[in-house]
From TrEMBL:
<protein>
    <submittedName>
        <fullName>Uncharacterized protein</fullName>
    </submittedName>
</protein>
Length: 270
């Protein structure tokens, strides 16, 4: 039997939902930091470095030695090959095409690392969620410019905690000092959906780590959470994926496969 939703948690959901509904109604597809601040969305920098004070607040990387090496030998044996930008016919270089190609490669590599890790340790941390059922059925936008979430994962049973991770594509080029409306909307919808689940009514904070793939074959990672009054979004700088970078592929894998951390039963900073 599920416990009733505490009044404070309901207030948090209502405040978050108001921000989500307003952003969903915006006509702009790219928002600078001042425009985001006007929507009660505060942006601060992030680094994928455990020793940095700007590291993710709610996620940590897995040990690098548990990962495979995405070299030419791996690609020859893999179900998918890394497509460098220059090798792709110009007609298939739309941001959405490149983003989907990268998501296909990265997701296969991360899956291979998980199932081949020592004692399957990485395969026991995260589980894919259905994107066809409530509360995560609204993570795709088919109107131009398209955006969507083909991969959404949560902690496996026995390790239940609210942090989530998602792979996101956008049919737009990315720029520094702006975020795409699609990135913001997906973060808000994922957080809102997780907060609706009764098993997390005791948690005030629901963090999500977005792996955002956009044009022209670039990517960034964004940590997002609601602090009770505003949404905090912490983007990494944009990385150029037009040429294969084994170190970057492994770094992204460490953070996608790593465990959640931090206190989520209270609002951050409280």
């Amino acid at each position: 039997m599920h416990s009733p939703e505490p009044a404070k948690h309901k207030e948090l959901r209502s405040a978050l939902r108001a921000i989500k509904n307003h952003v969903e109604g915006l006509e702009a597809h790219e928002l600078d930091y001042s425009q985001l601040a006007a929507q009660r969305i505060n942006v601060s920098p992030m680094e994928l470095d455990e020793k940095s004070s700007a590291r993710p607040c709610f996620f940590k990387p897995c040990p690098a030695h548990l990962l495979m090496v995405p070299d030419d030998e791996y690609d020859q044996k893999s179900r998918t090959k890394y497509q460098e930008f220059k090798s792709v016919h110009p007609i298939f270089r739309r941001p959405i095409d490149c983003a989907r190609n990268m998501i296909t490669y990265y997701s296969h590599f991360w899956f291979d690392c998980a199932i081949h890790s020592e004692n399957y340790i990485l395969d026991g941390l995260w589980r894919r969620l259905s994107l066809m059922a409530v509360p995560f059925e609204d993570l795709f936008e088919c109107n131009e410019p398209e955006f969507g979430t083909p991969e959404l994962v949560k902690a496996k049973r026995g390790r239940e905690s609210p942090p989530m991770k998602a792979m996101v594509y956008n049919n737009l080029d990315g720029n520094e000092n702006t975020l795409l409306r699609g990135e913001v909307v997906i973060a808000l919808r994922v957080i809102n959906g997780q907060m609706r689940r009764s098993r997390f009514f005791e948690h005030s904070t629901v963090p999500v780590l977005l792996f955002s793939f956009l044009g022209p074959q670039h990517a960034r990672v964004i940590e997002a959470y609601f602090d009770g009054s505003s949404v905090v979004m912490r983007p990494l700088r944009l990385f150029d994926l037009r040429e294969k970078d084994q170190t970057l592929i492994r770094t992204f894998a460490q953070w996608f496969l790593g465990e959640p951390t931090g206190e989520t039963r209270v609002l951050r900073g409280v």
